[in-house]
Design a protein that fits this description.
With 124 residues, this protein is mainly β. Helices cover 0% and strands 52% of the residues. The chain has strands at 2-7, 10-13, 18-26, 33-39, 46-52, 58-60, 68-73, 78-83, 92-99, 113-114, 118-123.
């Protein structure tokens, strides 16, 4: 089993920054890809960013490209999401997820394990 715990969410003004962290424990030695998704009130959960755990290849949703940066610390089994120039439309619960098999990185079904989520609120 894998446990994922997010932290770093909070309230920030538009234009501000936040850094989310996701600590992974349990079976982490064969992680394939890790990602961040978000869900705003009344909307479906959507892909934000993903990173290949070994090679470090990154992927981003168009809505966050140039503002968000995903990274990881393999030694500490920790995933990060640096969010800059935040906008009110970035307000959502942010979830980290881990996949141990191949699949399309932006699809929820690729990921087997999910964290509990952390709230990010951006005020205008």
């Amino acid at each position: 089993q894998v446990q994922l715990v997010e932290s770093g969410g909070g309230l920030v003004q538009a234009g501000g920054s936040l850094r989310l962290s996701c600590a992974a424990s349990g079976r982490t030695f064969s992680t394939y890809v890790m990602g961040w998704f978000r869900q705003a009130p009344g909307k479906e959960r959507e892909f934000v960013a993903a990173i290949g755990w070994i090679g470090g290849t990154t992927y981003y949703a168009d809505s966050v490209k140039g503002r968000f940066t995903i990274s990881r610390d393999n030694a500490k089994n920790t995933l990060f999401l640096q969010m800059n120039n935040l906008k009110p439309e970035d307000t959502a619960v942010y979830y980290c997820a881990a996949s141990y098999s191949g699949g399309i990185y932006y699809r929820e079904g690729t990921y087997s394990y999910w964290g509990q989520g952390t709230q990010v609120t951006v005020s205008s």
